[in-house]
Amino acid sequence: MSPNPAELTSVVGGVGTSPHRPDAILKVRGEFAYASDLWHEDMIWGATLRSPHPHARIVSIDLSDALLVPGVHAVLTHEDVPGRNIYGLERADQPVLAEDVVRYQGEPVALVAADHPETALRAMKRIKVGYEVLTPVVDMESALGDTPLHPGGNLVRHVPIRRGDPDARAAVVVTGRYEVGMQDQAFLGPESGLAVPAEDGGVDLYVATQWLHVDQAQVATALGLPPALVRLTLSGVGGAFGGREDLSMQVHACLLALRTGKPTKMVYNREESFYGHVHRHPAVLHYEHGADRDGKLVHVKARIYLDGGAYASSTPAVVANAATLGVGPYVVDNVSIDAWGVYTNNPPCGAMRGFGAVQAAFAYESQMDRLAEALGMDPVDLRIANAMSEGSAMPTGQVVDSAAPVARLLELVRDKPLPPTGTDLLDLPGGVANTTHGEGVVRGVGYAVGIKNIGFSEGYDDYSTARVRLQVVGGEPVALAHTAACEVGQGLVTIVQQIVRTELGVTRVTVLPMDTSIGSAGSTSASRQTYVTGGAVRAACAAVKARLAELAAGRHVDDLAALLGDEVVDETAEWRHRPTEPIDPVTGQGNAHVQYGFAAHRAVVDVDVELGLVKVVELDCAQDVGRALNPQAVLGQIQGGTAQGLGLAVMEEIRTTGGVVRNPSFTDYLIPTALDMPPMRIDVLELADPNAPYGLRGVGEPPTISSTPAVVAAIRAATGRALNRVPVRPEHITSTERPRGAPA
Amino acid sequence: MDFLRPATLAEALALKAERPGAVPIAGGTDVMVELNFDHRRPDALLDLTGIAELRDWSAVPGAVRLGAGVPYRRVIDELGGRLPALATASRSVGSPQIRNRGTVGGNLGAASPAGDAHPVLLATGAVVEAVSTRGTRMIPATDFYLGVKRNALAPDELIAAVHVPETGAPQQFAKVGTRNAMVIAVCSFAIALHPATGRVGAALGSAAPTPRRATAAEDFLADELGAGDQWESPTPLPDSTRRRFGELVAAAASPVDDVRGTAAYRRHALSVLARRTLDWAWQGYTGRGRPCA
Ligand SMILES: Cc1cc2nc3c(=O)[nH]c(=O)nc-3n(C[C@H](O)[C@H](O)[C@H](O)COP(=O)(O)OP(=O)(O)OC[C@H]3O[C@@H](n4cnc5c(N)ncnc54)[C@H](O)[C@@H]3O)c2cc1C
After folding, report:
1. 20 to 30 Å CA-CA from B241: which of A180, A397, A402, B166?
2. Are the C-beta atoms of A621 and A683 separated by less than 8 Å?
């Protein structure tokens, strides 16, 4: 037997192919069980009473009327939290249930469990909470000097980056102030889960989440239980995009289940979902770019404010991304950036696809266009002239040590033929709503390129755990793979199967449900799971192969089933990417990131300049993915990420007034439809990263980053407007905005 | 909650007379949203989907009698030639699923200022056929919309049908939304030329507490067209006429600032829509453009 069966077998459905997802047919048929479909014969239903105020003191809570409602099993407040009533992803600052003060509209105050969801809702409405309403802090730029909302003040984190000469002067200087609105992940499956009390005093929680172990740790702390008594199993996840990294109903359902002794289910409806998860940080970004007359960048200075809302969530890491990636994929010798993440009474913001890099990219790419105009240069030429490449240094001093084909990506999107002008109503801005037959329609073309760190940064011990078991079933070798890595729709289950097939040469690979009975896989975020859990699965396979070599004991065995016999080979491996370093708190210097990903877009838009309506006609993308483990999944990520970036460019925003959300519904929080998202032509480069498993590069986030600025650049080209804010709304194009500060 | 399922219109009217609080449900695309969000908790739902009399349309002299329960899908497929503006409006409603279920009767029942059928019904001079055990009332669309989501139906009345004039003359509908499909109107507008009477119908949606006619714009345009003998020998309209018409339509609106758009934008967009739809309708009339969208 050769120690590497894969060398003998050319296995079907391995790495580099696009086999069917195991969940594909169920999902297409609508038969896939999502967390909202969880069911237990004896279950009761939980509901959450939330604060109507963005900022208020809680004066009193009267539960008596709610307890009188027939069918109610429990009504709980912060007094019923047995463990620590405070949690958080990176910093514990958020109560499980509010105590003396509420800091955002929608903050959980009390819980009800009842035998029917309607009963729970009715009882919930009978809880009387006395509030003393306080003035909300809502402006991110002045929050640091405003009423402190947390004991340490309103600064969550400040990240400075200092490189080169702070007083560098340039022949051509452009400045700008940019704003990014609050985008929502808008995943389709709302928050839901089922908590089942166990005989050992613990609890089993079935839940849709992105990171089982970080949930487990936080839930255990809040419940005052050892982590071993809090067991989590992933249930069907209907999208995540960062919005499930923080806790939503996890602790609440467990509290109710443990108190009542009954399995307790909680499902948010669409409106509650908008209050139940963090959003993308809104941002205000002030930039100055300086270049010499040939267009070579001399300096970049920036002040970046990110509104973290009421609680920290992952704001510290988002701030670091915005700062360290703040000049984009360009070589700049003199950089001075300050990024602040602040507390306000706006909705809490945290992880969302692109994570800090999105906000910065809108500003730096807008600046590159402005600079090109000031120089009289072509915007793509200017970008190529300053593009980083392998060996370039980041503003943190980190040298990019694998492929960084920024110029090539730009050339690829630039050199495609331009699409013809549409003639059908469906091709025009406004679509079938019949707003134009060509009147007022002007075409614009825009470009952007972006950079994203892949994986967790700044010295975080970023690892995953995988177990692979190999045995003969019915005469055939069969592999089982087990991890705690959350499948949230991206297709990791397929990737795990593909890796096992390739490594072990076994066709039949079953992926076990993800749960906490195995070690952590880390988060399904930061474009990292194929890299890190993929690495762990491959490492577990290597251990299995080593064991097979022992079994073979030097003999040559062709038949894996014969070699295995009754033997069960079962190996678990922990795998980590190469370490990163914290950045210097004063200069921002350090090897903070493990890998960088790049994508470029060209947007072609038709704008009805009289009505301010936009039709994105084409949105082509080029991206380097190192190695496409599953080429179809790669295209899916690029299309989905691009669509999300388009959404931020022209429609997606949670609008708030004084901290109050004005559009918590899919009626008024609009996401792109099939008529808004154009067909894409995609170029995938595979320039292997020697440090990563199979040479792969994280795929999920880069396309979200460059899509937004490319679309806005194209709208600017069509309209001649400055458009310093996303999303761009019709009133921005037609100068019919409400004046700043006018009453709502 | 009781779920009442009459098999005939007579049975439905008897039930409605007995229980005026029963909420009629046709496609349910408004009603179910209200129930799901707990905005409404009626004692009873009166399911109209089993009533054959409501499910069809027929040609009557000068008009189409459109049964209250005919879904948008059928308006699009079957009435594009007879009622072009209503078909255009129907095409812009929601998504395919909503168009399969949603009805013009339901749009009238809900009487939302943003309902897409309303500007067309107003501009074309449609008449609502309201029925009860007491008899039938013919309510002109102009008198039907009383306030935000309030209409002229009595508690015991149901909508049997709406009579939409079949004019054979150009008419247009246009709607601004902030995405290219499946969107509530930020504002909408319909125009219908009535060469037989020398009148023009013009009405707007989503820019006032109710859908409403722009009567000053209607009068202005009728005068302009009548004065120049344009109906008989049409010529291209002067810019001043087109612009003035747009201004008068915008002036007829009382829009608000909300998350969907600013008041200033709505007025501006209405003036643009009015001008463009007038151009298309007039081109259609003079035989040089498309007769309908
Ligand atoms: C996702 C979505 C998108 C939508 N998009 C649009 C859009 O783009 N444009 C638009 O205009 N609307 C839209 N709507 C709203 C809705 O689809 C329309 O108003 C539709 O016309 C309602 O018709 P229905 O048959 O479903 O009404 P139902 O929901 O059944 O009823 C609506 C109201 O009318 C009453 N009613 C129904 N039939 C009668 C009758 N015969 N007599 C008396 N009262 C009656 C009901 O009691 C209720 O008050 C949308 C709705 C959804 C859910």
Report:
1. B166
2. yes
